[in-house]
Write a structure and sequence with these properties.
Helix content is about 35%, strand content about 30%. It is built from four helices and seven strands; from the N terminus they run αβαβαβββββα. α2 (about 25-30) packs across α4.
Length: about 130
C-alpha cells in the first residue's frame, strides 16, 4: 500500500461523504507527516452505519470483501495485494467512538479529536 493509494482511497471515501480516520501505521505516518516504513495495508476507522456505502464504493474500484466480522472488523482487498482493514465505530452524541467487540473497554479516543488531528496531518486535496 503506497501513500498515493492511501490518498486515493481516503479521497474517494471522503468525496462520497464517508467519514474516515486513519489508524495503525498510516495513522502514525499522517501525524508525523511522512512515511516511516512500508505498509502492507491501510487501517482505517469508519462509522458502522457507513460500512455498506464504503463497501459499495470500494467494490466499484476493484476491491472485494475478504473478511467480514462486522460490527468489529471489515477487510477488503484487491488483486494488487492492497488491503484495507476497517475498524467500524458507533459515535455517541458527544462524538466519542466505540468499536463493538474490540475488547473489555470497547472504547476508542474521541473520534472528533482524531478526525481533526488526521485532517491537519494530511495534505489538502484540490
Amino acid at each position: 500500500m503506497t501513500g498515493a493509494d492511501v490518498l486515493s482511497i481516503v479521497g474517494s471515501l471522503t468525496e462520497a461523504g464517508i467519514k474516515v480516520w486513519l489508524d495503525g501505521g498510516w495513522g502514525v505516518d499522517a501525524l508525523i507527516g511522512r512515511q516511516t516504513r512500508p505498509h502492507n495495508d491501510l487501517d482505517a476507522v469508519i462509522q458502522l452505519d457507513q460500512a455498506d456505502a464504503a463497501v459499495a464504493l470500494l467494490t466499484s474500484l476493484g476491491y472485494w470483501i475478504s473478511l467480514d466480522d462486522r460490527p468489529t472488523r471489515l477487510v477488503l482487498g484487491d488483486g494488487k495485494e492492497r488491503r484495507i482493514d476497517f475498524h467500524p465505530i458507533i459515535l455517541d452524541r458527544d462524538g466519542n467512538g466505540r468499536q463493538i467487540g474490540a475488547g473489555p473497554a470497547e472504547a476508542m479516543p474521541s473520534a472528533r479529536r482524531r478526525a481533526s488531528t488526521v485532517r491537519a496531518a494530511l495534505p489538502a486535496r484540490r
